[in-house]
Predict the structure.
Amino acid sequence: MAVIPIDDPHDARVAAFRDIRERDLTGRQGLFVAEGEVVLRVLASPASLCRPVAALIAEKRIAALADIVDAFPPEAPVYSAIQAVLDGVAGFHLHRGILALGYKSVARPLDEMLAEMGEEAVVVVACCIGNHDNMGGIFRAAAAFGAAAVLLDDQCCDPFYRKAIRVSVGAVLRTPMSTGLAADDLVDGLKAADFRVLAMTPASTSPLHLAPRGGRLAIVLGAEGPGLPPDLLARCEPIGIPMSGGFDSLNVATAGAIALHHFTR
């Protein structure tokens, strides 16, 4: 693919990459911006569920990224610019020197997604996760331990926010997900599909390491601090990670990773 040089930060062809931080807050109508080589490689790979739209890469990095450029579909242009122009487009110093624009993957209906999963499928349910670092960490763990999907309730932040994608090292782009349902409806749908639904909570007296593995299983994670609401906990099997010295707090993505390791190893 021929790389298209850009020498003016106001060039209309790269308008979608302009003033990234401000536009992160307002959304991009079905598109997302990602940054960095690792994420770009995921987006350009066969594993990606998202379609590339364009890339903007620092001129000095083009040669080392030739394989990624070649992997981009013909309809997705790759632009290059010197660092000063790149910074002018982004609105800040872009030290990674790599931006990509893509279409968000389509969130599928829950019942349709669950019906296609195997008898040993493990999924993650995220409830009220508002921190983009935590969201990215949850997707990273889900991909690392082979979760079949991440199911997000209607109170979660956008997993396609630039920072969440970066923290996930691209896992957001390749992990099946369902979004938009209330947490209660997610639990109902999982139970109807014969999933055992386990809620992570430090208050549980049932330790994770003794929990039996096997069968369809969902791991429910809540926001740090408030955790999962009591009415939702009452509809699930509570499970906890024993800790030392009276300490009862783990980062939610870390807790999810420990649970995923237990149930998928």
Summary: The chain is about 30% helix and 20% strand.
